Amino acid sequence: MNNSLFRKKSLEQILKNAEAESHSNGGMSKILGVRDLVSMGIAAVIGAGIFSTIGAAAYDGGPGVIFLFVITAITCGFTALCYAEFASRVPVSGSAYTYSYVTFGEVVAWIIGWALILEYAIGNIVVAISWSSYFDNILQGIGIVLPRWMVTDTTTALKLYEAAQAAGKPLENLAWTAAPMVGDTRLIFNLPAFVIVILVTILAYIGIKESKKSANAMVGLKLLVLLVVVVVGVFFINTDNWTPFFPNEFGGVLKGVSAVFFAYIGFDAISTTAEECANPQRDLPRGMIYSLIICTVIYIVIALVITGMVNYSEFQGVADPLAYVFDKIGQPKVGYFVSVSAVVAATSVLLVFQIGQPRIWMSMSRDGLLPKAFSKIHPKYSTPSFATIMTGFLVAIPALFMDASLVTDLTSIGTLFAFVLVCGGVLVLPRESRTVKKSFSLPYINGQFIVPALWIVFAFLTRERIFGGFSHFGNEQHQEYLFLIFVFLSFAFSVFSFLRKWSLIPVLGVLCCSYLMIEIPVNSWFVFFAWMAAGLIIYFGYGYRRSKIA
Question: What's this model's pTM, rounded to 2 decimal places?
Answer without folding.
Answer: 0.78
